[in-house]
Design brief:
Length: 101
């Protein structure tokens, strides 16, 4: 049986855990214009960052990438990550555990 959630019903901001007890960890990120998330990392995770609305300046290990609605970014969670909204933005972020080598 699938689990289905409406992103619009998740009220926590800026982060809402879509499926709190399930893997892969799935987060809805909602930022106001000029709102940012402090630099951080997610060691041992692969990240898929799908921007649903808006425009984000995504800093990864000091490099800046412009992400616009409809874009999907994939990167290693060991990198330092610091998203900043250039306009009101909503992203769906999947943090999958990396497989052991």
């Amino acid at each position: 049986m699938p689990t289905i959630r409406s992103l619009s019903e998740l009220e926590q901001t800026p982060h809402a855990n879509v499926f709190p007890t399930s893997e892969p960890k799935t987060i809805r990120l909602e930022l106001k214009a000029d709102e940012a998330v402090d630099r951080h990392s997610h060691p041992g995770r692969d990240i898929v960052f799908c921007l649903l609305e808006g425009e984000i300046e995504l800093k990864l290990d000091g490099d800046t990438h412009e992400v616009t609605a409809g874009d999907i970014a994939r990167f290693d969670g060991d990198q330092d990550i610091a998203p900043r909204a250039l306009e009101p933005s909503t992203a769906l972020i999947v943090l999958a555990q990396q497989e052991s080598a």
